[in-house]
Amino acid sequence: MNVETPRHSATGPLRGIRVLEMGQLIAGPFCGQLLGDLGAEVIKVEDPKNGDPMRQWGQATVKGSSLWWSVLARNKKSVTLNLRTVEGQTAARTLAESADIVVENFRPGSLEKRGLSHEELSRSNPGLIMLRVSGFGQSGPYAKQAGYGSIGEAMGGLRYVVGDPSTPPSRVGVSIGDSLAALFGTIGVLAALQERHTSGLGQVVDSAIYESVLGMMESLVPEWTEEGIQKERSGSTLPKIAPSNVYPTADGQWLIIAANQDTVFRRLAAAMGNPQLADDPEYATHIARGKRQAELDELVAEFSLQFRADDLIDLLNEHSVPVGKIFRVEDMLNDPQYKARRSVVEVDSDDYGTVTMQNAFPRLSRTDTAVRWVGPELGQDTEEVLFQVGYDQNALAELRDKGVIR
């Protein structure tokens, strides 16, 4: 890929769908990234002075631009609009008239103050779908409180169960709460697009971070309400799921071995040279193994320490036992599965040079997803996009003079 890549998707399943992204940071923009990967035209609205703060976030930058930004803003066009001005709000309403979807993650009430609510925008565009991502949702007593992803992760139950039982609650090493809200929001948007075929009408998709986290918490709630069981931190294991843990090898590596299913445990026992273990009443069933989780983990660890990691992987693969390394980026770049599926791609750009990043997922057999370009320069598409919706050169010059656009 290179900077000459067409600015519209040729194959994506959402080609022809226009998205107006008015959010910033992660929760809204990650949804925009997903929709762009699927082929939608994503027009990202940014403040003309500094743009989205994500342009500076992350641990590494190239020419002052964050590498995180190169991923999160890929496949998007950047339009600058000062939404605090009447002229900026007017331009946003004009853009929304031709949009299928608006994505925003401001604090609830912010768009209403600017005359950009779904009720307002849908008067001239009845089919408009608006995704509203927020910490606590658009209703309820917490709705207008500041709600970052970390707060949603805590309220949704995730933070309490992450980490070792000997330490305070931990966090996952990525912004998982924001990303989950974007994922659930994307599902809602796609469902609303499908429903629009029947009704001809758009609607609001309300994605709360804490609810999106809660939606991933499996049987956390009924285990408490029905049996009084509170899920606790359990480190690298899941309680009563055994053997399924990280195990040491002779060359100082750690492997994931997951053999908690009865048939798989039988295959592991054979690989361990101890097939009778699978018939021992103390280990023969899922429930029995769960009761003896710690001692079973010790047995598997004693076995795994006899092998170098690669040799143990080969042995367990021969016995069809799920096993895998704990990957770092360098492992991903050298792995044959990653290479065969192009899970990581190189994307060319003027600003960054070549950027290596994760590909677009999932894969579709006929209308595939793609990374077409990296995160754009601030405002690089402003004139092109506004010209398409009726602004001539004189109007654009006036907006520039007033600081509405960059």
Name of the CATH homologous superfamily of the largest domain: Crotonobetainyl-coa:carnitine coa-transferase, domain 1
Strand order of the largest sheet: 5-2-1-6-7-8
* Number of domain units: 2
Distance between the termini: 28 Å
Describe this structure in words.
With 406 residues, the chain is α/β, with parallel strands linked by helices. It folds into two domains: 262 residues, Rossmann fold (3-Layer(aba) Sandwich); 84 residues, formyl-coa transferase, domain 3, CATH 3.30.1540. Helix content is 37%, strand content 15%. Strands 5-2-1-6-7-8 form a six-stranded parallel β-sheet, sandwiched between helices. A three-stranded antiparallel β-sheet has the order 9-10-11, covered by helices on one side. Helix 1 packs across helix 8. The radius of gyration is 25 Å and the shape is elongated. The two termini are 28 Å apart. It comes from Brevibacterium sandarakinum.
Sum this structure up briefly.
The protein is of the alpha/beta class. It contains 18 helices and 13 strands. This is Formyl-CoA transferase.
Layout of helices and strands:
Elements: E1 18-21, H1 27-37, E2 41-46, E3 61-62, E4 65-66, H2 67-72, E5 76-80, H3 86-97, E6 101-104, H4 110-113, H5 118-121, E7 129-134, H6 149-155, H7 158-161, H8 176-199, E8 204-208, H9 209-214, H10 220-227, E9 244-248, E10 254-258, H11 262-271, H12 286-291, H13 293-304, H14 309-318, E11 323-325, H15 329-334, H16 336-341, E12 344-349, E13 353-358, H17 382-388, H18 393-401
Throw out a few tags for this protein:
406 residues, alpha/beta, Rossmann fold, formyl-coa transferase, domain 3, 2 domains, 6-stranded parallel sheet, 3-stranded antiparallel sheet, 18 helices, disordered N terminus, transferase, CoA-transferase_III_domain, Formyl-CoA transferase
